[in-house]
Write a structure and sequence with these properties.
- The complex is a heterodimer of chains A (about 500) and B (about 280).
- With about 500 residues, chain A is an alpha/beta fold.
- Chain A is built from 22 helices and eleven strands.
- The termini of chain A are far apart.
- Helices cover about 70% and strands about 0% of the residues of chain B.
- In chain B, strands 1-2 form a two-stranded antiparallel ribbon.
- In chain B, helix 12 packs antiparallel against helix 13.
- Chain B is globular.
- The chains are: A alpha/beta (about 500), B mainly alpha (about 280).
Chain lengths: ~500, ~280
């Protein structure tokens, strides 16, 4: 009887060997970058693929720090101490060193043009290969949290001040301070708006650079065609809140599906802006520990908003989600809409009527009640090449990147530009084909943006959710804008401010 | 082995997390039963979520089961076009919840929506639907029932109906039983295992409602549709209180287990298995 070629034991042994080989291959992942094809231009072509990835990680510090060289096989095993090195002297790729791998966590779609128009060039100049990890905007922070829990976060993250994710990540050490890089390189932070830099600091340390910046929901978008047909005054930067009421009254014709006014729905930034209302006070005390919603000055904007919907009855509910109020404005059904200045990107498609944007009127105390906001790019503690991560952060917050962001239009793209004067004042953006004074007023609003405030315990989202139902009660006239309501509102916010940091 | 590693392990770990303060970005810190105490004594939204979820579950289970059964009875008849009708009623189940909520959102839009347009043309004032404190829950119930009445529950009922021996109906008919009597004394008793099956799954599914509110209302307006799983999600991912969210999840698990246990205990009294000893 001929011997059987495959016996069960042999088969199982082979299967085991295959499995072991697979495991070994998986565990040996750090050597993978060496095998990765290099995309950098090869000056000499002589350097073997396993040469240390010199350019990104060996730059000597200006202060004389010893270079940190990644071992052969790529940069993946470079110690975290590499943070001490400075990228100042890092040069574009030379030789055949394998590109440094980086992982960048961003939102899906919102900054799409940057990845196609800017990133490939940066990769080539810096001999790096960036893997984009994109998540839908609403799940972006949650996705990063999950990766943090599993120790799988990448090198650079896009996070936000408005939802406290920046503060939480930085305070807990997920993102690293950039002060060392800034000092070593004498990197000039004055190239950004001062308030956007102020936002990126916690306890005096810089936790990231302003990737984008905006003055929040300070735009009064108007449908000129509709207002003029109704004989109403078109708002300007000199209009008053009373002017807006009068214009909205004239334009409001619900039977004709034409509405005088709307403003943001469930929105934490809007709650802050209503509380400011051109006054000198805010929803939070300066140290972020006390609610000031028991102060009549802080309540004035809430009452004004309540009256637009329930006393003057000139508004369409801001809670409409499908279509939302932006879509309703685009279809010519809203005469006046208070919204984020960046919303103009969504209105760029309007062809059927004339529209424009002024900035919010000055309130009783002479201020417009805006709110400086910034998205932040930060380097993480998980990065094995933090100096290269820092270079990417810098690049993403550069003028060039900021302008590309500001020129985005269509789809789910965000047109909020970089938080820098040379971006906002760039002819590239000022000359974009927006109607009337939209671009000029956007710049004006940004130049005059008021400081960002936040709860000291970083519980911004929780506070928003506490306010949401009360704000809905107010707009839907389930509660009056009276003392009882404001007492509840104040207490709901204070209860959360009294909690410790998460 | 897979169950131990991928299911039971995380399950146990989540219980450990429920005893900790864990913000995801920091290491968990053990704090005993603090989360549980807070939930029952200081979390106002916990009770709101229980109330809203309970209301939603009662309506969707009672109305949903009844409608699915009636529809199954209708579609179990040997009539022309029955197969087509079965397909027609099953189709909403194939629509993803997110898509159906968005479509219904257009229909329910108070100022420009189709539904209120029709109501106004009849001289009736249309409510605010998803934007109304009173109407948001009924609107979500309509969406939920639209998507589930003709779905797998109905198919299971049809299968159950087809499993009832025809001779029993013939015998009852010979004994002079009318349509209602045959339904009450033949169909219902022999269908009780199917009803029980659908009831257990229906209660679990309805208590776990999430997408409808997450996409359609975010729990609003004024917490009118603030369901329990939404509360877990917000506490865990929005507020970075994963330990607290784990505790909420374990309470939820206990509630579902309790309901399921009660149903299994009660089934001895009303579920009739063919051939089972009396």
């Amino acid at each position: 009887m001929p011997a059987r070629l495959f016996r069960r034991r042999r088969f199982l042994a082979g299967l085991g060997a295959l499995g072991a080989a697979g495991l070994l291959a998986a565990c040996g992942g750090s050597s993978a970058p060496a095998a990765a094809p290099t995309t950098a231009s090869t000056g000499s072509g002589a350097a073997p693929p396993s040469a240390p990835s010199a350019a990104p990680t060996t730059a000597p510090a200006a202060g004389g720090a010893q270079p940190t060289t990644a071992p052969a096989g790529g940069a993946a095993t470079a110690p975290a101490a590499a943070a001490a090195t400075t990228p100042a002297a890092a040069k574009p790729a030379t030789g055949g060193a394998a590109p440094t791998p980086l992982r960048l966590h961003v939102r899906l779609g919102a900054e799409e043009d940057l990845w196609s128009q800017w990133l490939p060039k940066w990769e080539q100049e810096n001999n790096a290969k960036v893997e984009l990890v994109q998540s839908p905007g609403g799940e972006h922070v949650q996705k990063m949290q999950t990766l943090i829990a599993g120790g799988q976060l990448g090198d650079v993250v896009h996070n936000f001040t408005g939802d406290s994710s920046f503060q939480l990540f930085f305070a807990s050490g997920v993102t690293i301070p950039l002060d060392k890089f800034i000092a070593d390189e004498k990197y000039d932070l004055n190239q950004f708006y001062p308030f956007t830099i102020a936002i990126t600091k916690l306890d005096g340390k810089v936790g990231g650079l302003p990737f984008k910046g905006h003055p929040s929901r300070v735009g009064i978008f108007y449908n000129r065609t509709l207002l003029e047909a109704a004989g109403a005054k078109v708002p300007t930067n000199d209009s008053t809140y009373d002017d807006l009421i009068e214009a909205a009254k004239k334009a409001h014709k619900p039977d004709a599906q034409q509405y005088g006014w709307s403003n943001p729905g469930l929105d934490s930034e809007w709650y802050i802006l209503m509380s400011r209302f051109g006054g000198s006070k805010d929803i939070y005390s300066k140290d972020g520990t006390k609610s000031q919603l028991n102060d009549p000055e802080v309540q004035a904007g809430w009452t004004w908003t309540y009256e637009m919907f329930n006393k003057h009855k000139v508004g369409i509910s801001p809670f409409s989600t499908n279509p939302d109020i932006n879509q309703l404005f685009t279809t010519g059904k809203i005469a006046l809409l208070r919204a984020n200045v960046g919303t103009k990107a969504a209105f760029a498609q309007i062809k059927d009527f004339k529209w424009g944007m002024s900035v919010a009127p000055k309130g009783p105390k002479g201020q417009r009640g805006s709110l400086s906001q910034a998205d932040v790019m930060g380097a993480t503690k998980f990065s094995k090449t933090p100096d290269v991560a820092w270079k990417l952060v810098k690049g993403l917050c550069s003028k060039e990147a900021g302008i590309i962001l500001g020129k985005q239009q269509g789809g789910s793209k965000s047109a909020t530009p970089g938080g820098r004067p040379d971006v906002y004042e760039s002819p590239d953006l000022l000359n974009l084909p927006f109607p009337e004074d939209v671009q000029k007023n956007t710049m004006f609003a940004m130049q005059n943006a008021e400081p960002f405030t936040q709860p000291a315990n970083y519980r911004g989202p929780e506070i928003q959710r506490a306010i949401d139902p009360l704000y809905q009660e107010l707009i839907l006239d389930k509660s009056k804008a009276d003392k009882a309501f404001y007492d509840r509102l104040h207490q709901a916010v204070q209860d959360i401010l009294d909690k410790p940091k998460p | 082995m897979g169950f131990l590693v991928f299911n039971f392990g995380p399950l146990l770990y989540s219980f450990f997390l429920s005893l900790t303060k864990y913000s995801i970005v920091r290491e968990p810190v053990f704090q005993g039963l603090d989360n549980y105490v807070q939930i029952f004594t200081r979390d106002r939204l916990f009770w709101v979520a229980i109330e809203k979820t309970g209301y939603y579950a009662v309506v969707t289970v009672v109305v949903g089961l009844t409608c699915s059964l009636l529809l199954a009875l209708l579609l179990d008849q040997k009539l022309l076009g029955t197969s087509l009708l079965r397909t027609f009623f099953f189709m909403p189940t194939l629509t993803p919840v997110v898509a159906s909520v968005l479509i219904w959102g257009w229909i329910f839009q108070p100022d420009l929506g189709v539904l209120n347009f029709l109501l106004r043309s009849l001289g009736l004032p249309g409510p605010g639907w998803l934007q109304s404190v009173e109407w948001a829950m009924p609107a979500l119930l309509v969406v939920a029932l639209w998507g589930s009445v003709g779905g797998s529950r109905m198919v299971i009922f049809i299968a159950g109906l087809q499993g009832i021996p025809h001779e029993l109906y013939e015998a009852a008919h010979i004994d002079g039983a009318g349509l209602w009597t045959r339904f009450r004394h033949v169909t219902i008793p022999l269908l009780t295992p199917t009803i029980f099956f659908n009831l257990v799954l229906g209660i679990i599914a309805s208590l776990s409602v999430f997408q409808l509110a997450f996409v359609g209302t975010k729990g609003g307006p004024a917490n009118a549709t603030y369901f329990y799983v939404l509360h877990i999600y917000y506490r865990g991912f929005a507020d970075s209180e994963m330990g607290y969210a784990a505790a909420l999840a374990w309470i939820f698990f206990a509630i579902i287990m309790a309901f399921t246990g009660i149903q299994f205990w009660l089934q001895k009294r009303w579920v009739h298995y063919e051939g089972a000893p009396r």
